[in-house]
UniProtKB/TrEMBL annotation:
Residues 140-238 form the Mandelate racemase/muconate lactonizing enzyme C-terminal domain. Its cofactor is Mg(2+). The keyword rRNA processing does not apply. This is Enolase C-terminal domain-like protein. The keyword Translocase does not apply. Belongs to the mandelate racemase/muconate lactonizing enzyme family. InterPro entries: Enolase-like_C_sf, Enolase-like_N, Enolase_C-like, Mandelate_racemase_C, Mandelate_racemase_N_dom, Muconate_cycloisomerase_anti.
């Protein structure tokens, strides 16, 4: 069960509908497929999505850090030494998506060798998750039309609306239009990706006070320490920390500092090993968790689904598992299917997906 090689393969798959939000936009999934080879023959697979506007990583940077630092650090270890892997990767600062993909590919290889689904190895709480869909910036009518399509085609009934534009009424009008169109048929929450100040956020939340929001996420920057605490104190919905909590220590700081009252767990930035720590911490602190999406492809979504379905706390709310629907294609031999608002995780060993070799050949950019 020894790790013999780690590959980092760049690929590019265009989005049919780019996602736009306050901190950036994604037109093409320029991700990195990570493959961990073992002496048992099993190959573990995961993907790393570079998000320079969130964590500073780039596609080239992810490949470089894996090839030059992470691969030499883990080759020779066994798949059971995941804490040794974590300690060695932690010696390098940052690079959350690169570290997470290596970690999840190791779990995938271990599951394949053991003949066990990773979701069961992690906790096995349920076999499915409710899906929440993210609505990126557009005109109100287009955002309502997209939500209608998601309700009609996939049965999705939870929507996270991207906000953070100026004037704030651009966004509050969208949320109002969605509530008017669907009534209490849908759950709604908002994510500002730090686009507003604390005062703008407070004003927007007052304007939306009658719209029955489930959560508000990262409306203003956590670096505005007192402003954010002032904002969070006056809200009557949980305030989710997302990009401000890439590590368990950040979760502790934000929650105990009263700058957030809920957290987003993203396997794309904390893998399985650190996401498990973050989950236990959230449970101990008594804060709600939402499984977030780092604008993942289907590989990353299968990872989030495996983790989210493993625990009661991470599967209580709908998980953000649908961004892949906006991509023109993907790498899986059997695409993920959202039905009746749910994604069911595979019962296959490992994370539970197979890469289609022809698709990888088509989209990889290193050949
Ligand atoms: C989200 O929840 O913020 C947008 C930027 C990022 O890093 O993740 C996405 C979604
Ligand atoms: Mg967010």
């Amino acid at each position: 069960m020894k790790i013999t090689r780690v590959e980092a393969i760049p690929f590019a798959i265009p989005y049919v509908k780019p996602l736009k939000f306050a901190s950036g936009e994604v037109q093409v999934a320029n991700h990195v497929l990570v493959r961990v080879h073992t002496d048992a023959g099993a190959i573990g697979v995961a993907e790393a999505p570079p998000r320079p506007f969130t964590y500073g990583e780039t596609q080239d940077g992810i490949i470089a850090v894996i090839n030059t630092i992470f691969a030499p650090a883990v080759v020779g270890l066994t798949l059971l030494e995941r804490e040794v892997v974590a300690a060695r990767l932690a010696k390098t600062i940052g690079n959350p998506a690169a570290k997470s993909a290596v970690d999840m590919a190791i779990w995938d290889a271990l599951g394949k060798i053991q003949g066990l689904p990773v979701g069961d190895m992690l906790g096995g709480f349920t076999d499915r998750m409710r899906v929440s869909h993210m609505l990126g910036f557009a005109e109100p009518a287009a955002m309502v039309a997209e939500a209608e399509k998601m309700v009609d085609t996939y049965g999705i009934r939870t929507f996270k609306v991207k906000v953070g534009r100026h004037p704030v009424t651009l966004d509050t009008a969208v949320v109002r239009a969605l509530r008017e169109r669907f009534g209490d048929e849908i759950e709604l929450y908002v994510d500002g990706n730090r686009g507003w100040t604390a005062a703008e956020s407070a004003r927007a939340m007052k304007e939306m006070a009658d719209l029955d929001l489930l959560f508000a996420e990262e409306l203003c920057d956590a670096a505005d320490v007192l402003g954010r605490r002032w904002l969070v104190e006056q809200l009557d919905v949980p305030f989710i920390a997302d990009e401000s909590v890439p590590t368990p220590a950040d979760v502790t700081r934000e929650i105990l500092g009263r700058s957030a009252t809920a957290i987003s767990i993203k396997t794309a930035r904390t893998g399985f090993t650190t996401s498990r720590r973050t989950h236990h911490l959230a449970e101990g602190l008594g804060v709600p968790v939402v499984m977030g999406n780092q604008i993942d492809g289907q590989v990353g979504t299968a990872c989030a689904l495996a983790f989210g379905s493993a625990f009661e706390l991470t599967s209580r709310y709908a998980g953000e598992l649908s961004n892949f629907l906006d991509m023109s294609d993907d790498l899986l031999a059997e695409p993920l299917q959202i039905r009746d608002g749910h994604l069911h995780r595979s019962t296959a060993p490992g994370i539970g997906f197979e890469i289609d070799p022809a698709k990888l050949d088509r989209y990889r950019t290193d050949n």
